[in-house]
């Protein structure tokens, strides 16, 4: 068994409109039947445009949101029905890094104390030992010792994200869900944080679920990538293969949108027509058919299954 | 590169390093500077200064009462009954010949004690209930909010009188009655604050980091929700003083010969024609102290408001 996390048919629906008797009339299907797995020491990138359900997926896996349907199996244990109290033991092995580091730090706690508190809660009772570990964590994420005594508002965005990373590492997790960890940072700082995350992953043998809409970052970070569209995964493949040979029309369009790195480099851009359909009323059959230039009659009638197309490459499309 | 040029470069580098160091130093002093900034803003506010001065005099009077007067507040003096204000008795004497100033000075102890304890107790009740309602939501929220709304819908003084009716008169019961009658305001404010803080990411982060609900509520949410509560408490103190005086005036609070301001006021009400000073001075004191707290509380609210 080498899967650290397995998610089966995960669904998260939000009721939006209720009728007179309190019965739900409409639901937003933010996540609508997702299967994915992450192996020990692997980085799985989860990409898709805003509002496709990436973050909801991450939060549901961490049980910050209760899934409507499906199963979450973490280290062989089914944690789908775990209570808040039971989840506390799971959080020793599974952590989250937030998009906005400032919002995820208590404004009234000094950086050092914020991390020390985590150690205290996790039963490191000896104060000297805690201080030592905090220093070690600070070193690990490249913060200076003088900065232990500062409040979050005194740090720059990149430094704050380093604190958040150090805090997540304090419990020695095995899997970290990174929810757009660099999206809120300056481009010049993004590379530093990405390198830090990669370095830590290699050094500590961590697994990441790396959620991002930035395809270049995902390409750099991930071993495998899953592409999400409107609450469903449409394609998963090893990173290199996906970026060289995307099979799903949506993946193709998404990847063609990466800005050219070298000036003068020519790329064929596929521009998608129309808007993302509402997750309240997703299209019948294939969800991408309304914007797909290859759409056939079959696409509106039968929902394509996730098909194995060799190696670790899966795609949800009638073309393949 | 000529010598001059390299000197320029060095001077420039020095300047950069100097600026960097000063920036770093400034950053370290930020904690203190925020506090200093707050105090400076507060002292620029006229109301705050006047209010603070009145409160300070009030507190010092209460603390040093025995040193401020040579008379006794209890024992009658048949030779000095109902004397008008004079050098000997600046605020005059009452029908038993007791010095009004002395009684007011000792009365400030009662006002201070009652208001502080009652506000502290109601603050704790209101804050804890508000935090529970805001954090847990659902049924807990529904029950607490319903009780709060009922408590909130009664005028505080009326509710306090009802509690006194049940508990019986006396200073201790006045404290309990005021506390039980005035927690609903804190509860509503804290619930609102907690409701918005609960959605913040650092609370989610605390949950994921394995912290218990009580730790999250007391160490992460409440410290961030207390600013409006502090302002509210300074504005509740004068209300408690007035309610205590009212209850004592009605004979439901401190019992004579205890020199509560309400009791002194009450003792003068039959003599208002012949000895108005008996009622006038305690009334004036109540007004001044309430004014002081209100000025200070309003100033505090202005200064703490981030939009100001």
Main attributes?
heterodimer; A: 320 residues; alpha/beta; Rossmann fold; 8-stranded mixed sheet; 4-stranded antiparallel sheet; 30% helix; B: 308 residues; mainly alpha; MetI-like fold; elongated
What does this structure look like?
The complex is a heterodimer of chains A (320) and B (308). Chain A has 320 residues and is α/β, with parallel strands linked by helices. Chain A has helices at residues 54-61, 84-90, 111-121, 127-140, 157-169, 187-204, 215-221, 239-244, 249-256, 297-301, and strands at 3-18, 24-39, 43-47, 69-74, 77-78, 94-97, 175-179, 207-212, 224-229, 232-238, 307-308, 314-315. Chain A contains ten helices and twelve strands. In chain A, β4 (69-74) and β5 form a beta hairpin. Chain B is mainly α. Chain B has a single domain (49-304), classed as MetI-like (MetI-like fold, Orthogonal Bundle). Chain B is elongated and about 75 Å long. Chain B starts with a helix and ends with a helix. Classes of the chains: A alpha/beta (320), B mainly alpha (308).
Strand content of chain B is under 5%
Structural class of chain A: alpha/beta
Task: Give the SSE string of chain A.
Answer: EEEHEEHEHHHEHEHEEHHHEE
CATH superfamily of chain A: P-loop containing nucleotide triphosphate hydrolases
Number of helices of chain B: 13
Molecular shape of chain B: elongated
| Count of distinct strands of chain B | 0
Rg of Cα set of chain B: 27 Å
Average per-residue pLDDT of chain A, rounded, comes to: 88
Q: Unreliable segments of chain B (pLDDT under 50, ≥5 consecutive)?
A: none
Q: Briefly note the structural class of the backbone of chain B.
A: mainly alpha
The total beta strand count of chain A reads 12
Topology-level CATH name of chain A: Rossmann fold
Shape of chain A: globular
Distance between the first and last residues' Cα of chain B: 54 Å
- How many domains of chain A, as an integer? 1
Strand content of chain A: 15-25%
**Largest sheet report of chain B:** none
């Amino acid at each position: 068994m080498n899967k650290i996390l397995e998610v089966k048919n995960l669904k998260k629906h939000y009721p939006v409109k209720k009728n007179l008797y309190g019965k739900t009339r409409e639901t937003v299907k933010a996540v609508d039947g997702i299967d994915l797995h992450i192996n020990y020491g692997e980085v799985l990138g989860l990409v898709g445009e805003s509002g496709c359900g990436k973050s909801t997926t991450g939060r549901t896996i961490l049980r910050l949101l209760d899934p409507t349907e499906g199963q979450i199996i973490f280290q062989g244990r089914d944690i789908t029905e775990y209570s808040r109290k039971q989840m506390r033991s799971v959080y020793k092995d599974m952590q989250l890094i937030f998009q906005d580091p400032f919002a995820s730090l208590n404004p009234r706690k000094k950086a050092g104390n914020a991390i020390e508190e985590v150690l205290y809660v996790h039963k490191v009772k000896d104060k000297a030992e805690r201080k030592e570990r905090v220093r070690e964590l600070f070193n690990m994420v490249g913060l200076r010792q003088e900065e232990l005594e500062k409040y979050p508002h005194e740090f720059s965005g990149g430094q704050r994200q380093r604190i958040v990373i150090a805090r997540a590492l304090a419990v020695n997790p095995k899997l970290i869900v990174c929810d757009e960890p660099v999206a809120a940072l300056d481009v010049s700082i993004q590379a530093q944080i990405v390198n830090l995350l990669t370095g830590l992953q290699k050094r500590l043998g961590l697994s990441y679920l790396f959620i991002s809409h930035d395809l270049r970052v995902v390409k750099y970070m991930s071993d495998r990538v899953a592409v999400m569209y409107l609450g469903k995964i449409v394609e998963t493949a090893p990173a290199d293969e996906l970026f060289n040979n995307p099979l799903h029309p949506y993946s193709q369009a998404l990847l063609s949108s990466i800005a050219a790195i070298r000036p003068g480099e020519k790329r064929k851009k596929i521009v998608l027509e129309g808007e993302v359909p509402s997750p309240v009323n997703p299209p019948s059959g294939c969800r991408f058919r309304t914007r797909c230039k290859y759409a056939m009659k079959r696409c509106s009638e039968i929902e394509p299954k996730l098909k194995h197309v060799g190696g670790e490459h899966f795609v949800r499309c009638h073309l393949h | 590169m000529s010598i001059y040029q390299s000197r320029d470069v060095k001077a420039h580098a020095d300047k950069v390093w100097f600026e960097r160091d000063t920036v770093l130093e400034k950053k370290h002093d930020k904690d203190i500077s925020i506090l200093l900034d707050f105090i400076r803003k507060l002292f620029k506010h006229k109301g705050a200064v006047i209010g603070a001065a009145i409160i300070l005099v009030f507190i010092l009077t209460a603390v040093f009462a025995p040193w401020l007067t040579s008379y006794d507040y209890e024992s009658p003096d048949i030779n000095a009954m109902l004397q008008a204000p004079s050098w000997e008795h600046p605020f005059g004497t009452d029908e038993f010949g007791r010095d009004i100033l002395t009684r007011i000075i000792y009365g400030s102890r009662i006002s201070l004690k009652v208001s502080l304890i009652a506000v502290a107790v109601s603050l704790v009740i209101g804050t804890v209930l508000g935090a529970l309602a805001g954090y847990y939501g659902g049924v807990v929220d529904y029950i607490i909010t319903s009780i709060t709304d009922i408590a909130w819908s009664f005028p505080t003084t009326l509710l306090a009188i009802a509690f006194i009716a049940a508990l019986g008169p006396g200073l201790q019961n006045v404290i309990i009655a005021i506390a039980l009658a005035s927690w609903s305001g804190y509860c509503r404010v804290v619930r609102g604050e907690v409701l918005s803080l609960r959605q913040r990411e650092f609370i989610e982060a605390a949950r994921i980091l394995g912290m218990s609900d009580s730790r999250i509520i007391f160490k992460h949410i409440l410290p961030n929700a207390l600013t409006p509560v502090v302002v509210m408490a300074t504005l509740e103190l004068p209300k408690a003083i007035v309610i205590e005086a009212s209850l004592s005036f009605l004979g439901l609070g401190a019992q004579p010969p205890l020199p509560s301001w309400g009791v002194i006021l009450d003792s003068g009400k039959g003599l208002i024609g012949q000895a108005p000073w008996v009622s006038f001075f305690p009334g004036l004191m109540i007004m001044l102290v309430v004014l002081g707290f209100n000025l200070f509380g309003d100033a505090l609210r202005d200064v703490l408001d981030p939009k100001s």
